[in-house]
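Forum > Structural Biology > Help requests

Title: Can anyone predict the 3D structure of Daunorubicin resistance protein DrrA family ABC transporter ATP-binding protein?

Hi all, first post here. I have the sequence for Daunorubicin resistance protein DrrA family ABC transporter ATP-binding protein but no way to get a structure on my laptop. I'd be grateful if someone could post the structure tokens.
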Amino acid sequence: MTRAIEAEQVGKLYAGKGGEVGLHDLSLQAEQGQVLALLGPNGAGKTTAVRGLATLLSFDRGTARVAGYDLGREAQRVRERIGLVGQYAAVDEQLTAVQNLRFLGRLRGLGRAASAARAEVLIEQFGLIAAANRAVSGYSGGMRRRLDLAASLIVTPQVLFVDEPTTGLDPAARRDLWEALRELVRQGTTILLTTQYLEEADELADKIVLLARGKVVAEGTSDDLKAMVGPPIVQIRFAAADDADTALPALARVDARARLDSSGSMVILPATAPEALARSVDALTVAGLAAIEVTLRKPTLDEVFLTLTGDGPATEEAA
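Reply #1:
Sure, ran it for you. Structure tokens for Daunorubicin resistance protein DrrA family ABC transporter ATP-binding protein below:
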């Protein structure tokens, strides 16, 4: 099967203060119907990667194919098969949603009737029926973002590039947009998603590429990346810091690395053995101590991100 996205050591350098910045030797692959997330802070190179793969800029080095076509030699064929949702709404605020979508349909080569029919389908799909004939200038941020996504789907793309789609949206609007992206994947579209939100990558991505300072730091599934940080963690929360202090020696006999967290009311220890949780509970019982919460969890993507990008662990649990 031809990969939907395939890049080999692509890069783009810009002259910046203190040296050259940009994207360095990025290699990635995405199969049809997958979500590939580029995760990283501002300036990591995410938008440069998207703009290059979407033919909006030329890479300085490397080769890439999108939807089976070479970016350098067959850029127009690539453009015919992709959609792009940038960081900012690309619709005309003075027009209504219907007018925007019909206009974009005509630009993409659809006839008048086909453009109108496609606009009607997308208005319903993205929950914009009640506001379909209102000027976009009166839309909320979530409504604009849904319209922007709808606009990218006037002609259903094989590959959709979505650059930080939920920046500035409230939690409900973010969830709505996530579900819209999931539905596209169910229909067979491949999505390359850039985001600063760790939860977003965890929720949506089949594979994550972690970027920092223009370079790939790590890649894999969410579980793969979490495993790089360390074993699961046992967290035992107490009603008061004094209780945690009292419990610490007993839990240190389970694992010598047991320690208090920054709040002082929780003891944390690595679950290097499958029985670590049960042994921790037994140790508390023998010591006559009671916890208000005992949990076993994997490291979070926050901890992965901050540890692997060299900024230190997000929390003491990741130390």
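The chain has two domains: 5-227, 231-298. Residues 171-186 form the longest helix (16 residues).
Shout if anything looks off.
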